[in-house]
Write a structure and sequence with these properties.
Blueprint lengths: L5 H28 L5 E2 L2 E9 L4 E2 L8 E2 L4 E8 L7 E8 L7 E5 L10 H9 L3 E5 L23 H27 L5 E7 L1 H12 L6 E5 L5 H15 L6 H15 L36 H12 L20 H9 L3 E2 L6 E2 L1 H14 L12 H16 L7 H5 L3 E7 L7 H15 L1 H6 E6 L16 H9 L7 E7 L2 H5 L6 E8 L4 E4 L11 E4 L5
Parallel strand pairs: 7-8, 7-9, 9-10, 10-13, 13-14
Antiparallel strand pairs: 1-2, 2-5, 3-4, 5-6, 6-8, 11-12, 15-16, 17-18
Helix pairs in contact: 3-4, 5-9, 5-10
């Protein structure tokens, strides 16, 4: 055979290399398309859509589009926990060369009903294969408010069980099957991350299915769902006769900061540890019933009730009160005092707490389409909710012995300015875990409280941080995390998605019960000028 001239070889080899490179994306596209119809133990792949590197993607819940960092396959599957079940799940699978060999399952929020696409993107960008589910039912109306819609549960016990815990477990199993089929190997590590109801779901995974995941992130967990739902109606009943306008919330928030902001050694608009604050809203009470620039007696009573938390007539504490520092409009105004959430098809507005809890008692507890929150009686209805549903949907009392026996890791976090779920509840849960499980819990659980962070993110304080990275390092054999650096940006959502955003402030989050203390030198907006110390340490 004649040898090719050197010049010709020089021309052909680059072309052959280009062909190989051109075929690589084609191979990924073909492999993705071939997933359609793939059978899994609990269901089948209905759709598989290739996404190419550089492609613009619109994510439900996100204000901005994102750019695919590399090619990946969007897989939609229908799964079943039993014959009457229908769980819709999505799996985002990176191209093999971009996969880090690990798997992340994501929790949902509220009552679920939609795939949380916005939260799938961040772990995908880090190279993880990602899974999420609608928790076993589709949104009854606008996706924007789907998480607050509970009508799907009316006389649907199978759907309630799927939402409570089965959908995430079935999705975890299906995801691992799909990864073995697509990549030819099981994931080296598997993690679950959920916040809000997703935090409740995370603790369900830890307690009911300890073999599903090696590490779990549980943010602001609505673990005792029956109790916080009762608290939400109780809050709404106290707020109903008031006029806690945005102006009054601003006045209240300013008064709290004026008294307590500097307790941590730096006046920065944040409460590092609200437990050190001893504020009484009575300082704002009007001399008469003129409500301008002050709070009426009824409003002072309502604010105290929110801080105190619901108690029965016998004095039993149902759920912790809300912490000082969350009184701003996007906090209390959105979740507690309102009115800020538009209800589709009406001119009325309600708060997030009011809408979710009314649907919970109306459809899930009592199964009565005519039930109204005005009928609610804490001493009567809270025990009914617990009797009928606590064993199914609450995750605060689950035994984690099996989870700790596998040496799995649990990382909890909660924002101190959260107005959706009481931060103290998570501290109480952490304390209960340590008391129940002793040394295993002290070695395998960490809690981080974020000053100024609202519900699962946003808020006036630093709220963007890589909790998944901290968990991964810990599971991979690193020491338990004692500090996580959080950032505040001019656009926090963009920063969380990896889009350009300006950093305004950084702050260390300290493993509870330690708090961040400014050393008195350098900028108080820079994390390196803080140390984690015991709360009473000067």
């Amino acid at each position: 055979m004649k040898k090719l001239p050197h010049v010709l070889v020089a021309l052909i080899l680059p072309l052959l290399g280009a062909c190989v490179r051109a075929n690589a994306p084609d191979d990924a596209v073909n492999a993705c398309n071939a997933l359609v119809g793939t059978k899994m133990a609990a269901g089948v792949v209905e759709e598989a859509r290739p996404v190419t590197a550089g492609q613009t993607i619109s994510l439900s819940g996100a204000k901005q589009d994102v750019i695919a960092p590399f090619g990946f396959c969007r897989v939609a599957a229908t799964l079943h926990s039993e014959a009457a079940s229908e769980i819709h799940s999505e799996f985002w699978l990176p191209e093999p060369k971009a996969w880090n060999g690990k798997f992340v399952g994501l929790g949902n929020g509220g009552f679920g009903g939609v795939i949380p696409e916005m939260y799938m993107f961040a772990p995908l960008r880090q190279g993880y294969a990602v899974a999420a589910t609608d928790t076993g039912h589709s949104a009854g109306f606008s996706k924007t408010l789907a998480l607050l819609d509970g009508q799907w549960s009316y006389k649907q016990p199978v759907r309630v069980l799927d939402w409570a815990f089965r959908a995430n477990h079935i999705t975890a199993q299906g995801g691992k099957e799909l990864l073995r089929h697509y990549f030819g190997q099981a994931p080296k590590r598997s993690y679950f991350h959920g916040c809000s109801d997703g935090g409740r779901e995370a603790l369900m995974e830890a307690g009911r299915y300890p073999d599903d995941y090696d590490g779990i992130l549980a943010g602001a967990p609505a673990a005792a769902f029956t109790d916080v739902a009762a608290q939400f109606v109780w809050n709404a009943r106290h707020v109903a006769p008031t006029q806690l306008t945005s102006e009054k919330l601003k006045m209240l928030h300013t008064a709290v900061l004026s008294q307590c902001d500097a307790l941590d050694g730096v006046k920065d608009g944040l409460l590092e540890n609200p437990l050190a604050c001893n504020f009484d809203p009575a300082v704002l009470q009007c001399n008469s019933e003129d409500a301008k620039g002050c709070l009426t007696k009824t409003e002072v009573r309502a604010v105290r009730a929110i801080y105190q938390g619901p108690r029965t007539r016998q004095g039993s504490q149902v759920s912790s009160g809300f912490s000082f520092g969350g009184e701003y409009e996007e906090g209390w105004g959105l979740w507690i005092t309102g009115p800020t959430v538009p209800v589709i098809g009406t001119l009325k507005s309600v708060t997030g707490q009011s809408l979710l809890s009314t649907d919970f008692f109306r459809w899930m507890v009592f199964g009565d389409p005519d039930w109204k929150r005005e009928q609610f009686d804490l001493d009567r209805d809270w025990p009914i909710a617990r009797e009928r549903l606590a064993a199914t949907i609450n995750s605060d009392e689950l035994d984690l012995t099996g989870f700790f026996k596998r040496e799995n890791k649990l990382l909890l976090y909660h924002g101190w300015a959260d107005a959706a779920l009481p931060p103290q509840n998570t501290i109480n849960y952490y304390d209960k875990l340590r008391a129940r499980h002793g040394e295993p819990a002290s070695q395998r659980v960490r809690l981080f409280m974020a000053p100024g962070m609202a519900h699962c993110g946003s808020g006036p304080g630093p709220n963007v941080f890589d909790a998944l990275g901290a968990l991964d390092q810990w599971v991979e054999g690193g020491p338990p995390p004692e500090t996580i650096i959080a950032s505040k940006h001019d656009n926090d959502q963009a920063a969380a998605l990896g889009l350009p955003a300006k950093v305004l402030r950084t702050r260390p989050l300290c493993a509870w019960p330690k708090v961040a203390r400014w050393n008195g030198k350098g900028s108080s907006d820079a994390a390196e000028n803080f140390s984690c110390v015991e709360p009473n340490q000067p």
